[in-house]
Structure formats: structure tokens, C-alpha cells
Amino acid sequence: MKRCYQLMLVLWLCSLCAMAQDAEMWTLSGKVTDSKTRKAMPHVSVTARSVGTVTNEAGEFVLKLAEAPETVTFSCLGYKTQKLSASAMNGVRVEVRMEPSSVMLDEIVVRGADAKELVKMAVDKIADNYPSVPNLLRGFYRETVEKRSHFTSISEGVVDVYKTAYTKNTDWRDGVAIQKGRRLLSQRPGDTLAVKLQGGPVLPIMLDVVKEKDILFTPEELDNYSFRYVTMSKADERNQYVIEITPLLVMPYALYHGRLYIDQETLAFTRIDLSLDMSDTEKVTQMILKKKPASLRFTPHEMSIYIDYKTDDGVTRINYIRNVIRFRCDWKRKLFKSNFTVTAEMVVTDRQEGKDLKPIKTRDTFNRRDNFYDKVVFFNDPKFWGRDNIIEPTEDLLKGIE
Q1: Of 23, 43, 16, whose CA–CA distance to 32 is shortest?
Q2: What are the strands, taking DSSP E only, across 255-400?
Q3: Per-residue pLDDT tens listing for the chain (402 residues)
Q4: Which residues neighbour 376 within 8 Å (Cβ) at sequence distance 6 or greater?
Q5: Which of 209, 201, 197 is nearest to 341 (CA)?
């Protein structure tokens, strides 16, 4: 009985400690909508100094800071940047209405270069526009699996990402370490996903197209595509060239369709949207599938990549990355087929940078051959994240967790 009382006392003291920590935090929550349509806006960047998050699919967010900032900034491509004074806003819920910003096509000044030449110029400027020293990024990572219209698996965690300078391609020192995480699994029979896909928390390393140039930006890869100017847009009140790319040649591997957003003044890539060309399902399968049972037929339908970069103090850094894979699975000799959607996303919530930063130790580095789901534990605690910033779960995701 005495041990029981001691345990209850420890739990009570822990609860008081957690409450005290929460009380010390400065928090701002709310929803971001389009001022004209009133529709929710996902993936809007919400930042204060170097700390930030993004809105979820319902446009909702929560930002947590150790102390009150001067302002909180809301930015999204194609919209005017909003800045809110943060005084007396601790614990307040706000509704932020973003106004679209239009840029006339006749504002385009193309420096005498065609679209492909402009992209080459932007590639040549990567070393000038992106970090020249190592960065240690703190991020929130979430991975979900949907079967038809319900969630069958949810894994999420706080991760550290070490990235060397952008003056060179990804090297062995770039790595990811999981700080804490949780997982939840559907108990419905037949919901288990029997395939293993490429990706996981190493997305900001594997799919950072600007640093991992072999994906798209080597001279040889650029020759595989056609380029054309589409329009102009705005991000953080700066004009952006929008260039569309489409496959030009037939290669032994799948190519991409997409749009590249390039800052008109600095020629930094500020956003990259890519979708894998699905015309040859065998090539696509080779790129995204790691493992499956022999008796399972795997048919890919979509693989898309969305990468958002943010410029601060003249340096452009990765801010948010999202990868969506849709496919169908059916077992031989069975009538039923199942459609799946696997979504992985990571937002940078804080960062450090400098020449003295040490790489993540090898023993702590997430192995690309592993599944993120296998590396975190079952856990369901509303205060699990504590002081860490996360992407707020949507209502559908909350139902899946429950």
C-alpha cells in the first residue's frame, strides 16, 4: 500500500510539473482562411523568429514559444504576407484571413533567358542562396496510411535533421534522429499494409531536390525535360517565376511533371511541386516500392512531392515537405481490391546553424532501410508533445486516433 501512495505522489508531482511547463509557454492558435472564399488554407507557414509550424488540411494551427515574440508571420505562395502583433495574445485563438496577391503577366522580366536557361542560372546560384554552413533542424514528422476512406496507421514524432552546407550534394554526414514518437494502428481485420515503400523521416534528405541535385538538377537530368514559363506569383511579397516542366525523353526510369517557383531577384528556388509520370507503372513501382509479398499485385496511381523553402536574412532554407503515394493492392485469387494513400510530411519547427555543429552520431541515425512505424511506441497521451511544435491533427485524423 505504501508503494501505491508513493507512486500516486510521483504521478501527482509530475502532473504539477507538466502544468507549470505549459503555463510558462506562450501559445497562439487559430485558423487561416482565404479572405474571399472563406475556405480553409492548408500548408500556410506560421513563424515567429526561427520557430514555426504550418497549418493542417483544415487550416488550423498551434504555435508554442518559450517567450512572447514581437510578431507572428503568416505566409503562403500567391497570398500577401500577414504579420500579427503578438502583444497580449498568449492563449488567444485567432482567425487569419489571407488576401490573394496577383501579379500581371506583363510584369515578367526574363533577363534575356528562356525557361531552361533560367533554371540553369538558378541551379548555379544554389551555393549563394542556401546554407553555406551545417544546419541542425528540429522538425515534426507525420506518416499516415489510409485504406479507402479510413486511417489504418498513424505514426508521428519529433526528429532532428542534420544537413551539411548546400555547396555539395548530400553526403554521409546528413542524417535524421528520432527524439520521440508514437504510433497508432487500426484493429480492423485486413487493415494491415503488406507493402514497404520508400521514404520515412529521411524525406528532407532524400527529396530535398535543391541539395540532392541528382533527382532533377544535374545537366544530364535537365536535358530530359522541356521547360516553359507559365505565369508569375508572389511569396513573402516577392515576385516568383513559375516554370512548368514535362518529360521530353523516354528514360529507363520514371521522370516528373511539375512546377518550379524561382525568386525573380535572387533566383532561389522557393517551392517545387513534382508528380511522377505514371505512364509506365513498372518504372514507377521500381522507384517507390521496396518490398511486397510475391502473391500481391501492386498498382501505383500517384506519387507527388511538395517542397516549400523559406528565406530569412538572405538565406533560403527548407521549411516544409510533403510526399503522397496512392496505389492499389489486390491479392491473387481474391476478388477484392483495396486503394491506399500513404502521406508523409515534415515541418521544420526550429533550427540551429554554424560550423561547430556536430553531425548526428551514427548509432542514433535513422536507417533508411527501416520503417518509422517500427521505431516508435504505442502511446496515447494528450500532453505527449509538451513544448514541441507539431502540425495540428485534423478532425478526421483525431477520429482515426480515437
Answers
A1: 43
A2: 256-263, 269-276, 289-291, 296-312, 315-331, 337-353, 377-378
A3: 444 434 333 333 333 344 344 457 899 999 999 999 999 999 999 999 889 999 999 999 999 999 999 999 999 999 999 999 987 788 899 999 999 987 654 555 555 579 999 999 999 999 999 999 999 999 999 999 888 878 888 889 999 999 999 987 656 789 999 999 988 776 565 556 666 676 788 888 889 999 999 999 999 999 999 999 998 888 888 999 999 999 999 999 999 999 999 999 999 999 999 999 999 999 999 888 887 788 888 899 999 999 999 999 899 999 999 999 999 888 776 667 889 999 999 999 999 999 999 999 989 998 877 778 777 876 667 788 889 999 998 877 777 665
A4: 155, 156, 157, 178, 180, 181, 182, 183
A5: 197
Using CA of residue 91, residue 92, residue 95, residue 101, what is the dihedral sign? negative
The grid cell for 89 is 495574445
Residue 294 in grid coordinates: 510475391
Instruction: Say if residues 341 and 146 touch (Cβ distance below 8 Å).
Output: yes
DSSP result, 143-211? EEEEETTEEEEEEEEEEEEEE--TTS---TT-EEEEEEEEEEE--STT-----EES-STTHHHHS-TTT
d(CA 341, CA 58): 18
To the nearest 10°, report the CA torsion of 203, 243, 211, 290: 40
Please answer whether residues 94 and 30 qualify as being in contact, where contact means their C-beta atoms are separated by less than 8 angstroms: yes
Amino acid, res. 271: R
Q: What's this model's pTM, rounded to 2 decimal places?
A: 0.88
